[in-house]
Amino acid sequence: MTVVVLWGMAILLALVVLDRVIAFFVQRKPAQLVFTQLLLVNAPGVQRAIHDIAVSGDVDQPGQLARMFLQAVQVTLDAQASWVYGRADVMTGTRGALEAQLKERAVLARAAFTSETTKNQQDGELRGATIAGSTATPEPGAPLYLAVTLGAVTARSSLSVPTSPCTDETVSTVLRHLMSLNSGQIHEVQVVWSPDVAGEFLTEEQAIRKYPDLGKL
């Protein structure tokens, strides 16, 4: 009996070590970070659609989170006529370093907000936070803005984008590249959007102030 127990413990320990070794090498595999951030004008349909995607998917199914991410990408791509400001980045490196970079960018996207509600879909969990701050009342008929951040760590490819200027064609190229991937090629995703609640908004002045790095498309 003692021998059997010892063998069982040895096998368990070996499996734990093997799992850690595999994780070590996976995190050092070459990968690619594909990242876009957009300000859309008068796009309540996009706001509703991304929210519905986030709350309706069964993330326990293999590959489902990646598929939900691609649905959000498609919704954003279909709303190209509403894009006003944006950026698109493509970076290469090790998978672990790029996943850390993606999470950092998502934190910055969420931190950009004051009184608005920001929600994100990450690791299968819908997360949100409302932070107290100043509000603004738009002029009647003034454009209302929605911020959408989409990022993924993927298998490395030949995709590249010019550093500047960023155009709607650049963003479109990046989003179409993401749509060409299957769930097995997508390792980590982040989707952040705000405002999330119907009736909330960003005025143009708020949008430009919160996203000074976004260029006019």
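The above is record 1. Record 2 follows with the same two-line structure.
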Amino acid sequence: MTLPNAQWPKLPLEQWQETYETLHLWSQIVGKIRLAQMPWINHSWHVPFYVTVRGLTTSPIPYGAGAFEIAFDFHRHELHVTTAEGEQRSLALEPMSVADFYRKIMQVLGELPAHRDAHLAGPRRNSQPYPALP
């Protein structure tokens, strides 16, 4: 279906380059949490993000007898971690370092029965490696 006069907004990269780079690194952390929890499927097909009307989500991630989901809500500038039991914690998506984001999301996960250390050493496949995360 084609909408008449529908146009994508202009998104000049130079105006949001820093946001793009930060979101890329934050999403790597969330992706590695999912990677650590999911059984392996060829080509990492088990760790994609899914587009929602509000942002991106991991979809349910199995954990023990339950599951949890991590969702970026770009409308409210929040990250939500929700368990299958209905518990939810949120983290404000505001300017912070990648290390601070890592610490905060690990703290949020630690408050829920869905925590497992993802053993993140830092973003990979990057020509300019970032310092190891705590």
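Confidence is low (pLDDT under 50) at residues 116-124.
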